[in-house]
Amino acid sequence: MEQLADDHDLLSLPKEKWCGDDLVYQFNGFWFTLPCLKAALHLLNNFNPLPTDVILASFPKTGTTWLKSLLFAITNRTSKDSLISTHPHDLIPTLELQVYSPNPTAAGILTSSNGNTRIFSTHVPYQLLSKSAIHSSECRIVYVTRNPKDTLISLWHYMAKSKMSHMRPWTIEEAVDKFCHGTVAYGPYYDHVLQFQKQSLERPHKVFFVSYEELKDDTKNQVKKLAEFLSCPFDNEEEADEIVKICDIQTLKQHEVNKSSDLPKWLGLPYNSYFRQGEVGDHKNYFNSQIIQRIDDMTRDKFHSAGFMFGI
Ligand code: A3P
Question: Does 199 sit in the ligand 1 pocket, CB within 6 Å?
Answer without folding.
Answer: no
